Amino acid sequence: MIRVKRYQTPFMRSRRVLAIMDPQKSVKHLSKFLSYVLGRRPDEFGLVLDSNGFVKIKTLLKVASEEDGWKYIRRSHIGELLIVLPNPPVELKENFIRAKSRDNLPQPIRVDTPPTSLFTCVRRKAYPRMIEKGIFSSGDSDVILSSNQQMAIRMGKRIDQAPVLLTIQTRKAAKKGVCFYRTGDLIYIANSIPPNCFTGPAIPRRKEVPEKQDMKKEEKVERLPGSFILSFDGEKDQKKKIARKKRQKEIAWKKDRKRLKHAKDKMWPA
User: Fold this and answer.
1) What CA–CA distance (Å, rounded) separates 166 from 155?
2) 3-state DSSP call for residue 157?
3) Looking at domain 109-199, which CATH architecture does it have?
4) Cβ–Cβ < 8 Å for 184, 43
5) Strand, coil or helix: 130
6) For labelling alongside 182, which of 11, 68, 110, 224 has CA 20 to 30 A away?
7) Rounded to 10 degrees, what is the CA torsion of 181, 182, 188, 189?
8) What is the rounded distance in angstroms from the CA atom of residue 270 to the CA atom of residue 268?
């Protein structure tokens, strides 16, 4: 009996390899990735941890979706990691996550002479208000800045699909008492940025909408028990129909008169 060898596409072969592969290997790869992001260089990914080393799981998943090879990560994968590994490198607290080993994390260092220009992104809706009042972060977190424009845009797209890129003039801000701290190579933080210390695109003008005419308020009529209000709308509509028919008859009569006159002129030439 001759056996026919079944042809397998590369996609089919890759699925077979994944099925045979030990699931602990993929968990170990994820473990190394999280250890590096949360325990060594979060600044490379535009992440700023809080004072206890925590970051929102939602933010971490957004960071992973920006990296090739890690876009598949969901919260369930992190939960699987905690179950499979006897000593997982991360720990969860409600909706936050942090690395257990944080000795190698870059510490914030105050910088007296930061780069002349730093960059940050804000939401489109908040931009007009920030021009007047300055840049303030929500909650207890600081304003996150970057010396790299592309990194600032990358961080901004996590809060808005089309964020507004702002250029911070650090010298002006420093004269107004702003202190800058560097964490890692590309990330800077500040408590706030006063107005007139940053530049951005012009705010588009709003189209003036003509004011609508005030509608006449209907007078409220008190109804007594057992009474009703007569409506004359039917009579008005009837009068309009009669007037319309009368105009149509007059127009038709004028047209017939012109047509007869024109025919008469042709029959009796001058």
Assistant:
1) 13
2) coil
3) Alpha-Beta Barrel (3.20)
4) yes
5) helix
6) 68
7) -30
8) 6
Helices (H), 117-227: 127-133, 149-156, 170-175
Amino acid code (one letter) for 4: V
User: Long-range contacts made by residues 68-72, C-beta under 8 angstroms, separation at least 24?
Assistant: 70/33
Interstrand relation of 164-169 and 135-136 (parallel, antiparallel or unpaired):
unpaired
Q: Which ranges constitute the DSSP H helices of the chain? A: 10-20, 23-39, 57-65, 75-84, 127-133, 149-156, 170-175, 233-267
Give the integer Cα–Cα distance in Å for 189 and 133: 18
pLDDT confidence of residue 241? 79
Please report how many Cα atoms fall inside a 13 Å half-sphere around the Cα of residue 87, on the Cβ side. 2
Q: What is the pLDDT of residue 10?
A: 39
Show me where the domains of the chain are located: 17-99, 109-199
pLDDT tens digits along 225-256: 655 555 555 666 777 778 888 888 888 878 87
Residue type for position 269: P
Among all chains, which residue has been given the structure tokens 């998943």? 61
- Report the pLDDT value the prediction gives residue 68, as an integer from 0 to 100: 86
Closest by CA to 121, choosing from 73, 91, 155, 86, is 155
Dihedral angle computed from the Cα positions of residues 241, 247, 252 and 256, in that order, rounded to the nearest 10 degrees: 150
Among 189, 195, 47, 207, CA closest to 127: 195
CATH topology of domain 17-99: Arc Repressor Mutant, subunit A (1.10.10)
What is the distance between the alpha carbons of residues 183 and 207, in angstroms, rounded to a whole number?
43
Alpha-carbon span 158 to 33, nearest angstrom: 20
